[in-house]
Each structure stands twice: as C-alpha cells, then as structure tokens.
Design a protein that fits this description.
Oligomer: single chain
CATH architecture: Orthogonal Bundle
Radius of gyration: 17 Å
Shape: globular
Number of domains: 1
Structural class: mainly alpha
Mean pLDDT: 90
Strand content: under 5%
Bound molecules: magnesium ion
Number of helices: 5
CATH superfamily: MazG-like
Largest sheet: none
Number of strands: 0
Length: about 120
C-alpha cells in the first residue's frame, strides 16, 4: 500500500488534489492526453474504456484457464488504462475522477446503511 509519503516522493500526491475549480489534477492530466474531439472523442473514450476492461478480463481469463501467472503490475497497468478512459468520460459529463469517486462512495455508503448492497437496479 502506498502511503502519502510514497506518493509525495514520486511527485504524484499533487495529482489527486483538487484545485479551486473543483477538478483534480489527475483529471486535468488526462485531458492533456486526449487526442480527439466531439462525437469522435465520445466514441473513442467509450470504446477505450470497454477495450481496456476487456484487457483486464483477458488476463484474469488466462490466469484461470491456463493457470498462468502474471506480474501483479501487469493487471495494475491495465486497471490504470481503465481509470484513464473512465476519467476521460468523467471529464465530458462532469468535473473529473474525484467527482466520480465521491458520487460512487456516497451511493455505496448509502446502500450499505440501508442494507441494499446486494440486489439489482441502479437506484436501489
Ligand atoms: Mg491496456
């Protein structure tokens, strides 16, 4: 587990701080890497998210099917790709990754308090 000190030593701690406009530095960093615009961007970011999630699934499939081993860093890198595209979409529809994390934590904490973590439906 990385500590705050570890993140500071790598210079990444600032990436997860929110600036006065409410957007975290990581989301701004992602925005600098986006190469497409408009509808093309929406499609590219969405397909990128699904494709990268597929790469995670593929590694897990091979782990189970072939009893193969992989360096944990390989799956972490693929998860990073998923987070990148999720952040790109979060920048389109909101104010970046921090907002997504806060909304998700609020939703799941609420479900947990009401005993609704199990079940189905977006608005349970
Ligand atoms: Mg990848």
């Amino acid at each position: 587990m990385l500590s705050k000190d570890d993140l500071e030593n790598f210079g990444y701690y600032e990436m997860f701080q929110t600036s006065s406009d409410g957007q975290d530095a990581y989301s701004k960093w992602v925005e600098e890497k986006i190469l497409t615009y408009g509808d093309e961007r929406l499609v590219e970011n969405t397909l990128g998210l699904v494709g990268e999630a597929g790469e995670v699934a593929e590694k897990i499939k091979k782990l189970i099917r072939d009893s193969s081993r992989f360096n944990n860093e390989e799956i972490l890198k693929e998860l990073g790709d998923v987070v990148f595209y999720a952040t790109a979409l979060a920048n389109i529809y909101g104010n970046g990754l921090q907002q997504v994390l806060e909304l998700n934590m609020k939703k799941l904490d609420d479900r947990q308090k009401r005993g609704k973590l199990k079940g189905s439906g977006d608005n349970r």
